[in-house]
Amino acid sequence: MTTLSRKTSTNFGKSLLDVWKGWSKLSDLGKGRALAGLRRSDLARIHYDFQTFAHDHQKPPVCAPSGADWKTWLILGGRGAGKTRAGAEWVREVALADGRARIALVGETEHEVRSVMIEGVSGLLSIHRPRERPQWNPTWRRLEWKNGAVAEVFTAENYEGLRGPQFSAAWCDELAKWRHAEATFDMLQFGLRLGERPRQVVTTTPRPIALLKKLIADPSTALTRAGTVANAFNLSPAFIEHVLARYGGTRIGRQEIDGEIVEERADALWTRVGLENCRVDAPPKELNLMRIVVAVDPPASAKKGSDACGIVAAGRAEDGTIYVIEDASVAGLSPQGWAMKAVSLWRRLQADSLIAEANQGGDMVKAVINEADSEVPVILKHATRGKYHRAEPVAQLYEQGRVKHAGVYPALEDEMCDFGIDGLSSGRSPDRLDALVWAIGALTFGARGQPRVRGL
Fold it and tell me: In the predicted model, is pLDDT for residue 158 greater than 50?
């Protein structure tokens, strides 16, 4: 922290007092104007004064709705709503108040725990004043405060790592996208057994998974919600304008901007429950796959804001079961960019062929892929039926238990559960789903000894 002279400190105190007095009554524009004249050193001080300038949804609740003490504080919010800062500030308070605190930091992957929860802009290292900042030991995957408090890193990829350690507090980030959400969360609960009142904070953009619904219904859960715009003061105006213009009012916008739990549509070919039931916990190398394909649904345009390029890999096991093994779909890339992405996946999985829809570009699609790697066997497919009718026989395979997901693919599964008879998902072309349909169709309906379906 910058050392201030007595004169500077006095000026800072007056300016901060002026800003603080009417802060709660100011609009976002007013807050911006109030802070615009402050010096950088003043703004640095304000960065650490979280309790004064925090939004209501970022402040710990007094009790659960039942009136009892809360066990879980569940913060559901849109992108950029300030969830990470709220979780990090709560951990900071717990650690500084009790040198005996033992805290679990749980995220989807070790990389995300480190890059978001610990080293991120709103992470634990950033929000502490320099004199109170904990020491981060990446080798031991732990944070250590000067008073003796300790926080350890755990991931949903290796939930067995939670077997054994015990904690007085925990912070779970982006729980709705964890690969083994139920198993990881359950294992954590057995370890929350230190102190008089062990607690946990869960920060996540919501998805309609069973675990979130259970937490919301639990009487010991205190729930706070906030949309992206609630934290607009701390976000780029251009970002707010862009996401509201493009996604406002859409299904994905309600989830990612408003922070709502959006259930699948009534006419959808897939359901959340059905997809959860078809999930398996096994990497591709353990599935005994006899054939693997990578399917590409190329975008109609390479312009900014155009559709994504759907890239999905699937394999067929010896018993005929189809396994979806990766969703590598990308947006905003040139034809050369998405072609390299598809070819790279084909190489890594040692796939047999690369399937590409030819309705958009035809020979150009094959040419751009062969330009990336001339040895890739490209099979062009022409769609003669609408998206919904092409997807129906694939959905039937899911119902029959003949298709499994080897992992969790949130963006792909969101498209599947919002795909209806209009052929759209959240009002947009379902690029990931299109690639999925081509991949499964090539492995099943186009496989030797299997009936062909017109248009697949």
Answer: yes
Cα–Cα distances in angstroms (integers) from residue 428 to residues 216, 250, 257, 265, 315, in the given order: 30, 9, 17, 15, 27
pLDDT at 233 over 90: no
- Beta bridge mates, 203: 75, 173
Residue with structure tokens 């499994």?
Answer: 404
Q: 208 and 245 share a domain?
A: yes
Q: What is the pLDDT of residues 397-416, one digit of tens each?
A: 999 999 999 988 888 988 89
Most confident among 56-60, 269-273, 294-298 (mean pLDDT): 294-298
Residues 6+ apart with CB under 8 A from 297: 309, 310, 311, 356, 357, 431, 432, 434, 435, 438
- CB neighbours (10 Å) of residue 445? 17
**Which stretch of 56-65, 136-145, 150-159, 343-352 has the lowest confidence by average pLDDT?**
56-65
> Concatenated DSSP letters for 320-333?
S-EEEEEE--BSS-
Task: Mention every residue, 6+ apart, whose C-beta is less than 8 A from residue 396.
Answer: none
Name the pTM for this structure.
0.61
Q: Is 443 helix (H, G, I), strand (E, B) or coil?
A: helix
Distance CA(360)–CA(246), nearest Å, equals 23
Tell me if 344 is assigned to some domain: yes
Alpha helices in 98-236 (DSSP H): 110-112, 124-127, 181-191, 210-217
Dist. CA 219–CA 110, nearest whole Å = 31
Nearest to 168 by CA among 202, 134, 197: 197
Three-class SS state of 429: coil
Which residue among 205, 230, 256 closes a domain?
Answer: 256
For residue 108, give its domain range.
Answer: 56-256
84 and 196 inside one domain: yes
Q: Per residue in 20-55, pLDDT tens?
A: 555 556 565 565 555 555 566 665 666 666 666 677
Tokens of 280: 């398996």
162 backbone dihedrals φ, ψ, rounded to 5°:
-85, -5
pLDDT at 264 > cutoff 70? no
